[in-house]
Amino acid sequence: MRLRNNNKRLSELRRRWGHGRKEDPHPQNEAYAALRLRTTGQPLSDQTQNDLDFPALFSFLDHTHSRVGQQYLYDQLVNPGASGSELQDLDNRARFFDGNPSKRAAVQLLLQHLDHSDARYIPRLLSSALFPRPTWLKWAAIDTAFVILFLAAALVYHPLILWLWLPFAINLVIHLRNKNNTLPFLRSFPQLNKLIRVTRKLAAQDIPFDTRGISESLARLRGFQRKFRRLSFGQTGGSELEQVYYWLLELIKAFFLIEIHTFFSLIHELENSREDIDRIFRFTGSIDQALSVASLRAADRQTCTPVFLPPGRTLHLRDACHPLIPDCVTNSLLIENRGMLITGSNMSGKSTFLRTVGVNTLLAQTLFTCFAREYRAPWLRLYSSIRINDNLLEGKSYYFEEVTVMGQLIETADDGKGLNLYLIDEVFRGTNTVERIAAARAILSYMDQRGHLLLVATHDIELSVFLADRFDLYHFEETFRKDQLCFDHLLKAGPLHTRNAIRLLELAGYPPEIIREANQAVSGK
User: Fold this and answer.
1) Cα-based distances in Å from 331 to 270, 321, 471
2) Domain of 318, in residue numbers
3) Rounded CA gap, 407 and 383, in Å?
4) Contact 389, 401 (CB under 8 A)
5) Which residues is 475 bridged to in the sheet?
6) Residue 364, H or E segment
């Protein structure tokens, strides 16, 4: 039966290779990213996550086999900070799994033991203060000592046995009330125990992962496993005999307050074992991440590995596409020592192109994988302002939100922490044309002078005149065929010379006098 089940699971794993989970990200995925002990890197801002449609992007990228790997992958993407050597290791490990199906299958089967939804709660154990020690805990030790002495005395003076019901009743109440303390850990404790066992087996596998420190961490966590076995977590077993055994054990635990002493001792031990838990979590998560990257590359999409250049204002993408868009039109760009200003009408592809550059930059620096034929750039800190929303609940207008976001970008341009890539779609679209163009010109010139990379999309053709000395000009355009608007979504060099807004009004059936007056206003007649 076990062999048949393994064969079935292996068949399913082979079928899934090259395919992601395709499930919506769980809110608990953020837990490890928030509680992790590693503090390097530049976190991806909420604004940039929103601009890059991060939930949908993560769902597409997630090819993991465990919830531990899923949370680790999420952390790597929202906290990009891996070094070049770490990314090269990731690439080598992904290639190893791609070329060794038997080793891959063995690891996948082990990781599936951590795919239970409760495994998402393991990162909660990384908190430095898991559970406050109650003031009455010292009296529990005195209570247990009294019960033992009372029981010993009863063995000598037998009538005392009749009075054992009193301490037993008191301790039973204390024991049952303590069940509320263990409730927050019903999910995390059993899954940590499982993580320890899976990590031990993974460390014994012949795979190219650094196991330094893993054995020591596993050894120090044996104390947790011993104490964990004393806690039942409400599992009564299946058969009647098992249930009788369970309740007998519960009575013994209650009489001597064994579970209470074990629980708080275990909590204290875990609070001192954060680094060991994090080490085995990262070890197991990194294995699943490498598998996920290998599976992602095995999908039917064009991918490449990035080439990282010395610091400088250079970005080269060849035949890049957005992975979330089926049959996406590919585009290329080459930036050298200048910004990039893109003009074009609505739906022409400006925002999608900015997101394509952002997604591939993020994936280059986190998964060492790009959806392009070529990616060459230095290490970049990624910032964006593509999708702005007003906040009615806080009484903030659209323009005020724009002012806030752009102000934050300007601050990062002056912090001197590294070379930044800015993806900006329409500066201050929430205000009047004259002031918008004047402010955009001043802000973009200011940020460009700080030596960063700027890719800016705009409807304002006038900006291309004012910024031509600092920015290379590109555009997306459209054509009309048989009264239908057609887009090729291809990036073209040079400024845009056509307009289509009034033509669209005409196609939409607006009254002729409106179209005539609008055209006269544009032509100055």
Assistant:
1) 51, 7, 19
2) 301-494
3) 12
4) yes
5) 343, 492
6) helix 350-364
Distance CA 91, CA 84 (A): 11
End-to-end Cα distance, the chain: 86
Residue 99 lies in a domain: yes
Q: Which two tokens stand for residue 221?
A: 């966590």
- Sheet holding 314-320: strands in order across? 307-308, 374-377, 314-320, 331-336
350, part of any domain: yes
Rounded Cα distance, 302 and 413, in Å: 33
CA separation, residue 46 to residues 34, 43, 346, 376 (Å): 13, 9, 25, 26
Q: How many domains does the chain contain in total?
A: 2
Q: Rounded to an integer, what is the distance from CA 224 to the centroid of its chain?
A: 29
For residue 344, what pLDDT is reported? Answer: 84
CB within 8 Å of 492: residues ≥ 6 apart: 474, 475, 476, 477
Report the DSSP beta bridge partners of residue 484: 481
Is residue 276 domain-shared with residue 398, that is, in the same domain? Answer: no
Indicate if 26 and 152 belong to the same structural domain: yes
Enter the pTM of the model. Answer: 0.87
Residue 456 burial (CB < 10 Å; 0-12/13-18/19+)? Answer: buried
pLDDT (mean) for 388-395: 60
In a domain, 8, yes or no: no
Listed as own residue / partner, the contacts of 184-190 with beta carbons closer than 8 Å and 24 or more positions apart are 184/124, 184/131, 186/233, 186/234, 187/118, 187/121, 188/118, 188/121, 188/122, 188/124, 188/125, 189/228, 189/231, 189/233, 189/266, 190/118, 190/228, 190/233
The stretch 268-278 carries a mean pLDDT of 92
Same domain? For 315 and 441 the reply is yes
**Does residue 364 have a pLDDT over 80?**
yes
- Whether 266 has a pLDDT exceeding 70, the answer reads yes
Same domain, 258 and 133: yes
Is residue 402 assigned to a domain?
yes
